[in-house]
From TrEMBL, chain A:
Chain segments annotated as transmembrane: 6-29, 41-63, 83-116, 123-143
InterPro entries documented for this protein: DUF1468
Limits of the DUF1468 domain: 12-145
Descriptive protein name: Tripartite tricarboxylate transporter TctB family protein
Organism: Calidithermus roseus
From TrEMBL, chain B:
Segments traversing the membrane: 33-63, 96-128, 134-151, 188-212, 305-328, 349-372, 378-398, 405-434, 461-481
Residue ranges annotated for the DUF112 domain, each copy included: 9-430
Organism per entry: Calidithermus roseus
Metal-binding keyword on record: no
Stated name of the protein: Tripartite tricarboxylate transporter TctA family protein
Top-level taxonomy: Bacteria, Thermotogati, Deinococcota, Deinococci, Thermales
Keyword list, A-Z: Membrane, Transmembrane, Transmembrane helix
Keyword Transmembrane helix applies: yes
Alphabetized Pfam families for the sequence: TctA
Amino acid sequence: MATERFWELVGALLAFGLGLAALILSRGLPQMEGGYPGPALFPGILGVLLVCCGLGVFLGALLQAGHSRGVAVEGRKGLVNTLGVLLSLGLAPVMLARLGLIPTAVAYALFACLLLRARWQEVLAVGVAMGLFVYVVFMRFLGVQG
Amino acid sequence: MSFFSPEALLALLLGSLYGAVFGAIPGLTATLALSLAIPVLLFLGPYVAMAAIIGITSTAIFAGDIGSVLVRIPGTPASAAYTEEIYDIGQERSPAYALGIASIPSAIGSLIGLVFLVLGSLALVWLAKQFSSFEYFWLVLLGIVSGIFAVPSLLKGAIAFGIGMLLATIGYDPALGHPRFTFGQPNLLGGIDFIIALVAFFGVSEVLEHLFHGSSRQEFRRLERLARGSSVFREFFVETWRLCLREKWGLWRSSVIGTFVGFLPGAGSDIAAWICSNFRRMRGGTKEQITLEGTTANNAAVAGAWIPAMALGIPGDTLTAILLGMFLAMGITPGPELFNKYSSLVVQIYLAFFLASVVIMPFGGYLSALIVNALLKIPMRALMGMVLGLCVVGTYAVNNNPFDLYLLAILGALGFVLRQGGFPIGQVVLGMILGPLLEQHFMVSMIKTHWSFASFFERPVAILLALANALLVALMLGIRYQQWRRLNRLRMLASLAKPEE
């Protein structure tokens, strides 16, 4: 419960930040003829909505966290694994250019399996199945270049 | 290419089996199945792709019951309403009989839903032809408002919709064609590809969730035999059919309610199943009756959700939001244009629903149960590895653009944070579809009338839709207020009871 409260706070701050960014960035957008609001109007409204609702959820989560035993993050190892996969996804375009489509797909499938502590037989089976599937379906059947 | 082409029929069959497998295995959802399939289906053309999508969506919901029967875990949220009952039926009588109840009434519910889909979509298209941007604005707003109220927390629903709509503002704006929030990046000028967002929100975030919680080590106990005593065929088909004949009024009622609930924007198959099974439960129904009504309703709701999606371009749930994204990616605008320009595709959709209901669900149901029972041997950690690999390949395949993989990582992280905080991801996706429609119809209306807000209340249908919006907000706020008061009363009673203990 405390973990969800923590992520609620993070989500609320994220919404608040996105709303604020939308408000600030939309100020630089042009107006329509006659001084009517143009492309900035809709993002501006969404910005206000996100700022207000983000603040509401943040305060609500803080109040409820006060009633409970506080805010904590459980599963540090899980968080490290999650961040590891996210960071590795940032490398995907480079891997794709250097290694090609099949090795990249297989590498990600194996990486996730290993982080989830799969047995080596399972890892091997996933690697072979992934490679075959990508080759047959994506490269041969659909003609995806890679 | 026509519906009766071997490619389309094969797509329907393979889509059904694929949907059944994803729907049945706990932890894999219909939305995830569709998200991973979309990058492949995009290449196959509308006829084949639609056949496959109908196969996936129509069977994934009913296949959720297979997980309930085999391992007491609902494969999809739509099956959660009667999991206990259907599992008990499987244990007390036979798994084949329980799977029959999951399959035959689902097919009947889907068939009745199809009748409403044909009649409802044709009637709505006729009505939609009279619509201008003012009516569409109110209609889209109705979809957004009901989508927000469909979530237990209003603020979280609004945030999810807000984020989805904000993501959709990236790229050229609909009024002046001016680029917004692109940060000089040419890859963002066309906006965030809906399919990439879909793969990130449902695929990557699912894998991240498993990594974070480390919950992939669950093992499922498989069934050794599907029937006891009498034959599987007799239990699966004959006995279930007898039950359906005995409970024909319950079937009708839950089909009609299910279709109606599915038709409402924001409400989906799970709500339909809860309403119908709870209704029967409150009236002291047997386990068979509760299961039958729940499973009929959630499948009828699938067809119901397609009515506004096809006729008006307004998604009823996440699955139809994905369907609309698929239509748009193929250059097809849902609504009257779909019925005018692609009438053969519309007929194909109806026929595919018919085949999925009459053939796939009853006969494929049995086959799927056997396949799923075998597949339960594959551990979740291996499946999640495959899902991540497919997310990477699928994202790249959409545009052959490596830049999309950066978006996959960013949106995957966003989806993960939102999921962990209990923010509904489905609403983000709905926001991405409905946001641009809302802005477009609003800006067109404003430009047409030189920014006269009164013009939104000048046409009779527009006034009716505006009133429907106001009524919905008032009604839902009233219900929420009553729930809040009841909860407070219960809390007070609980605090009074404590000292006595």
